[in-house]
Amino acid sequence: MITFGRYRLSFSKALTFGFLIVIAIGTLLLMLPIAVKPGENSSFMTAFFTATSATCVTGLTLVDTATHWSLFGQLVITALIEIGGLGFMTFAIMMFLFARQKIRLSARLLAQESLNLQSPAQITIVNLIVGLSLIIQVLGALLLWPDFGRRFGLVKGLWYSIFHSISAFCNAGFDLFGNSLALFADDTYVLFIMAVLIIAGSFGFLVWRDLLLYRKKHRLSLHTSLALSTGAIILILSLMSYLLTEDNLA
Description:
Layout: E1 2-4, E2 7-9, H1 11-30, H2 44-55, H3 65-68, H4 71-86, H5 88-98, H6 105-115, H7 125-152, H8 154-169, H9 188-203, H10 205-212, H11 214-217, H12 222-249
Helix pairs in contact: 1-2, 1-4, 1-6, 2-4, 4-8, 5-7, 7-8, 7-9, 8-9, 10-12
């Protein structure tokens, strides 16, 4: 249980309220005039739905992300995607670690519940989560930039690369093209990078930790083994089913 003044909340309720607070802040920011492009306006429901979709990384939108939201609005959406993809507790613990502040036991237990850790002592895995996420997303953006820069210009292409690298890694589904990735249907390079980012983000950080420590421990946890084997089976079966279906339709 966690105590807030006179109120006592279970860890699951605290996590739920945390997400609701993030969504509420995102909604308020998206309702600001600076969040939309000239001539556009956002109702409460548009801002609320977009903030919820970004935080919960669903990819559902009521308006075209590229044409409706300004750069500020797109930055807000990007931040919500990152928080939703990594978990708001990850960012909270990260701030404590960067400030070198002592983390209370209640916060450690909440982080344990949020990140599915075996014990509160594993809280330092947040450093791995944040560091690994940044490395993968930066690398993804750098690999996308040559293609996007050629299509949209260096500056706009860089922003598109950053946005879509984050969106793909967090499995968010948001895009700035208006038609998802239909524009790149024949661009194997972009599709391959996006697919790798999506798969890398879907693994989960406990899996990445086990993989990075495999040379040292020479073993994988049951969670990692199941995640990798199940993921591979689903991916292969889905690909085979798709190819067979497409072949029959042809």
